[in-house]
Design goal:
This protein is α+β, with helices and mostly antiparallel strands. It has 8 helices and 10 strands.
Length: 246
């Protein structure tokens, strides 16, 4: 399929995470804490917690840190209480943006998010102003050079909704319903097809291609929002070229 490869954006994000591992650990602990508080501390019965713990292990988070976060969430240890909040708005070029945060202080968080939008040429919207453009989906990503035929065969057998191959670099994405993500991921790993990256994320129904200075402005805003202390995830419908991050 055409369009800019998501793989370049994945690698950009991963590079930033590797450079700021302490912040990555903070995000993972918050996700583990909220997941365990909402669905219980047993990962076998709590898919969201299981995914969060898998991500923590992949990021080389110490086992003790993971267990401590679960215990704090389930009341075995004293800990900070976080709540999930979501903000919506527009970046330059009419790009829709969703910012998911976990915070112990809503006033601080909304002020920081609003400042980022305003400073970089965007504007915040009201609840629901852009969310209708997005769907929550499971995404399993494979680096360029992966075995397209085998991935497609296994993905279809496992119940995936779609397999996309990007023409510009040959990277592959397997898309699933959010509720089926864990089952499809487990089935693919069991079949010897392990994704390089996997997550449940928000994807827009239609992306907006932005180029040049506008693309760089959008990338800068998305990065700023992502780097805020309370931010967990940033989603947009921007189709950005790789050089937007240069």
């Amino acid at each position: 399929m055409a369009g800019h490869s998501k793989w370049a954006n994945i690698q950009h994000r991963k590079g930033k995470q590797d450079a700021a591992r302490g912040k990555v650990f903070t995000k993972l602990v918050r996700e583990i804490t909220v997941a365990a508080r909402m669905g219980g501390g047993d990962p076998s019965a709590n898919p969201r917690l299981r995914l969060a713990m898998d991500k923590a292990v992949a990021a080389s988070m110490p086992k003790d840190n993971i267990e401590r976060a679960v215990k704090k969430a389930t009341g075995e240890l004293e800990g900070v209480s976080y709540e999930e909040v979501r903000y919506e708005g527009y970046a330059p070029g009419g790009v829709a943006v969703i910012v998911e945060c976990m915070t112990d202080n809503r006033n601080r968080t909304v002020a920081e998010v609003r400042h980022a939008f305003t400073k970089l040429g965007g504007n915040m919207g009201t609840d629901g102003s852009v969310a209708y453009m997005f769907n929550r989906v499971g995404v399993l990503s494979f680096a360029p050079g992966a075995d397209e035929e085998k991935i497609t065969e296994v993905a279809i057998e496992a119940g995936a909704e779609d397999v996309r191959v990007f023409e510009d670099d040959g990277s592959i994405e397997v898309l699933t319903d959010a509720d089926d993500f864990q089952a499809v991921r487990d089935a693919m790993i069991a079949a010897g097809v392990t994704p390089d990256e996997s997550e449940v994320t928000m994807r827009a129904d239609n992306d907006i291609a932005v180029e040049g200075d506008t693309a760089k402005s959008v990338a800068k805003l998305l990065d700023w929002l992502d780097e805020l202390d309370d931010t967990q995830n940033v989603y947009s419908n921007a189709d950005l070229p790789a050089d937007a991050y240069e």
